[in-house]
Write a structure and sequence with these properties.
The protein is an alpha/beta fold. The chain has a single domain, classed as NAD(P)-binding Rossmann-like Domain (Rossmann fold, 3-Layer(aba) Sandwich). It is globular and about 45 Å long. The protein has seven helices and nine strands; from the N terminus they run E-H-E-H-E-H-E-H-E-H-E-E-H-E-H-E. The protein binds nicotinamide-adenine-dinucleotide. The site of nicotinamide-adenine-dinucleotide has 30 residues, from helix 1 and helix 4.
Length: 254
């Protein structure tokens, strides 16, 4: 069977876990060669191995998205191994416990650490992927959060970084549309991943989270991966600069 991504090379940042991992597996199952980039090299290798179980050739790359040299090296490595990128998904992201304090108590180091990975890391991955995406008239998907859209009331650096990712994705869409490059952003609500493991620790916490969600389910990472795959694919060929909210209806429910 012909896959939607046959012959395509896609870089997924944060591909070692959660939404990034599920996206890498989904894209590989549809024919892509996926570069799995993560600061946790073992997890990147695990995802690449899992993706390869279907016969897909995937490349694990260790590195930190907030460091330009690492990102530059990762893109160059993938291009050397597999060819020019036609897709990018930026899923690397972090929380920081101190960032959840009231704004006046958040230290600059904590704020900058979160912005450094979530926003600067997205900028760097997109910046270094763009020349290849232009060559291939490819597409990119950024992962922000509903924190970009609603007043969650916690996470200073997190909220600022996700708002930045959402807005900046539109800039890229406008600047690079004339090159045939599409850029779209996904804002997930609550997703069951290692990142939220602490939040969804107890059955009571899961129950509480579900009460805020009209579909009454915390999302699974695969439900985000399928939307990322759609946005990267030719099925979304006339969509750019869009923010897709994947939150079980939380944002629209009063
Ligand atoms: P996760 O912790 O399961 O996965 C994130 C991955 O990013 C990890 O493998 C981690 O090692 C990697 N990473 C972190 N910092 C990195 C760095 N500096 N360089 C390279 N890799 C790095 O988290 P997740 O839930 O899959 O989150 C993925 C994205 O989705 C994040 O941007 C997150 O903010 C966003 N998001 C998640 C939720 C949720 O409820 N899980 C909700 C909204 C948005």
């Amino acid at each position: 069977m012909v896959g939607r991504f046959d012959g395509q090379v896609v870089l997924v940042t944060g591909g070692g876990s959660g939404i990034g991992r599920a996206t890498a597996l989904r894209l590989a199952s549809e024919g892509a060669v996926v570069g799995v980039f993560d600061r946790d090299r073992d997890h990147a290798e695990r995802t690449a191995r899992e993706a390869g179980a279907d016969g897909a050739a995937c490349v694990a790359i260790g590195g930190d998205v907030s460091q330009e040299a690492d990102v530059e090296r990762a893109v160059a490595h993938l291009v050397r191994e597999a060819g020019a990128l036609s897709g990018l998904v930026t899923s690397a992201g972090i929380f920081h416990p101190e960032d959840f304090k009231p704004a006046a108590e958040v230290g600059l180091d904590a704020f900058m650490a979160v912005v450094g990975v979530n926003l600067v890391g997205t900028f760097l991955a997109v910046k270094h992927a763009l020349p290849h995406l232009v060559e291939r008239r490819g597409a990119l998907v950024t992962i922000a959060s509903t924190a970009a859209l609603r007043g969650h009331g916690f996470g200073s650096g997190y909220t600022a970084s996700k708002g930045g990712v959402d807005a900046w994705t539109r800039l890229v869409a406008v600047q690079y549309g004339c090159h045939g490059v599409r850029a779209n952003c996904i804002c997930p609500g609550s997703v069951d991943t290692p990142m939220t493991g602490g939040v969804h620790q107890t059955p009571e916490a899961v129950e509480q989270a579900k009460q805020r969600i009209p579909l009454q389910k915390v999302a699974q990472a695969e439900q985000l991966a399928s939307v990322a795959a759609f946005l990267l694919s030719a099925d979304a060929s006339h969509m750019t600069g869009q923010t897709l909210v994947v939150d079980g209806g939380t944002t629209i429910a009063g």
